[in-house]
Amino acid sequence: MKIKRKASMVVLSAALMLGGSVALAPTASAVGASACQFNSPDVNFKVSTSGARFRTGPGKRYRAIGTLYRGDSFRYFCRTRGFEKSWSYGKILKRTTTGIRPGTRGWVYSKYLD
User: Fold this and answer.
1) What is the distance between the alpha carbons of residues 74 and 2, in angstroms, rounded to a whole number?
2) Third-level CATH fold of 36-110
3) pTM of this prediction?
4) Do 44 and 75 contact (CB within 8 A), yes or no?
5) How far is CA 83 from CA 47, 52, 79, 89, 110, in A?
6) Which of 51, 47, 30, 29 is nearest to 104 (CA)?
7) Backbone angles phi, psi at 59, to 5 degrees
């Protein structure tokens, strides 16, 4: 019985630690458009490559929400700097190939938009 209780405590502790680290990760709503340096009228783009990561913030250090594939629809609101080597903030227009829901907001590396 003691072994089961100890094992349960280890699992519970690990779950709490994982949940705590996820709660501390930057989110799209925390970053949102505040990281933008260049605003634009809303423009619709298609993803031009397969395997583009859709993230909670502008950079690889932010958590990936999912993956975008060629032809997925993205409404662009703003970006971090000039189009080259920038990150674009916007929302998904139609359910993506991987199941990201319409209206989900996040960031994608700008060179992957067409």
Assistant:
1) 53
2) SH3 type barrels. (2.30.30)
3) 0.70
4) yes
5) 15, 16, 8, 12, 6
6) 29
7) 155, 165
Tokens describing residue 19: 């949940």
The H or E element spanning position 72 is: none
Q: How many angstroms separate the CA atoms of 113 and 45, rounded?
A: 6
57 token code pair: 């913030």
* pLDDT, tens digit (0-9, with 9 covering 90-100), for 5-59: 444 444 444 443 445 433 333 444 457 778 888 887 778 999 999 999 999 999 9
Residue 107: exposed, middle, or buried by beta-carbon count in 10 A (0-12, 13-18, 19+)?
buried
DSSP-derived secondary structure letter, 85: T
d(CA 73, CA 97): 10
Distance of CA 73 to the CA centre of its chain: 15
The first and second tokens of residue 14, run together, are 């690990």
